[in-house]
């Protein structure tokens, strides 16, 4: 990952739980949707980063990644629990109208066996993906700021124990500190590229800075 870039993690259940299927040869496969695309008819497909800021994963966002990125399948984004990999053929990624789907051929390890049992029991039902944005579109829609992810670099996907974001939940959630910092950088970069001096953008950047300062104090 390039120095200084903050990866984003997005979690989804959205009625699409991770599952374990059995292939024709009798071997298990872990399947799930790592991401759902934005659907204007479903508010739950927006990621609410702040009260007035939303992120949308747009159709086509993973097209380049599927062609070029060497993506790992992991449990809980833990690179010590690698379940599969696109380069080795033990994980396959695809997109459909819903979003980004993964199919993993897990290794015959104790960690993978324990995970599959937890999935079958319903103890693990969420999925997630880690990315860095490549191409974005920024919009102001009414009183909302919209960040559209048009293309991303994809690092890993897979099941997670505690999804921090349920895409069917429209309640406001505070973004993790890394996300807050990433948003602040995006806003500043956007402002510089456009050469605009919009009070709302400055206010947003200041609000993020204050949030980071408060989080820093609480962590001391």
UniProtKB/TrEMBL annotation:
Q: Which Pfam families match?
A: Peptidase_S78 (PF04586)
Biological processes annotated in GO = proteolysis
Name the domain of life this protein comes from. Answer: Bacteria
Prohead serine protease domain ranges (all copies)? 25-172
UniProt KW keywords: Hydrolase, Protease, Viral release from host cell
The Gene Ontology terms for molecular function here are: peptidase activity
State if Lipid biosynthesis is listed as a keyword.
no
Descriptive protein name: Phage maturation protease
From which organism does this entry originate? Frigoriglobus tundricola
């Amino acid at each position: 990952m390039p120095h200084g870039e903050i990866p984003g993690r997005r979690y989804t259940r959205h009625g699409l739980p991770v599952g374990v299927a059995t292939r024709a040869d009798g071997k298990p496969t872990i399947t799930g949707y790592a991401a759902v695309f934005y659907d204007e008819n479903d508010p739950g497909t927006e990621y609410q980063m702040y009260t007035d800021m939303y992120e949308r994963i747009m159709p086509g966002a993973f097209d380049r990644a599927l062609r070029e990125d060497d993506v790992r399948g992991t449990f809980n984004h833990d690179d010590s629990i690698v379940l599969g990999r696109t380069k080795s053929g033990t994980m396959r990624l695809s997109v459909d109208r819903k979003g980004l789907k993964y199919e993993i051929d897990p290794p015959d390890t104790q960690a993978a066996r324990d995970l599959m049992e937890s999935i079958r029991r319903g103890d693990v039902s969420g999925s997630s993906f880690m990315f860095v944005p490549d191409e974005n579109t920024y919009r102001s829609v009414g009183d909302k700021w919209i960040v559209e992810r048009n293309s991303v670099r994809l690092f890993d996907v897979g099941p997670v124990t505690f999804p921090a974001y349920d895409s069917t939940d429209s309640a406001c959630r505070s973004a993790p500190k890394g996300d807050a910092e990433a948003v602040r950088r995006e806003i500043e970069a956007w402002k510089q590229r456009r050469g605009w001096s919009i009070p709302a953008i400055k206010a947003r950047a200041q609000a993020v800075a204050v949030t980071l300062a408060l989080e820093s104090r609480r962590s001391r």
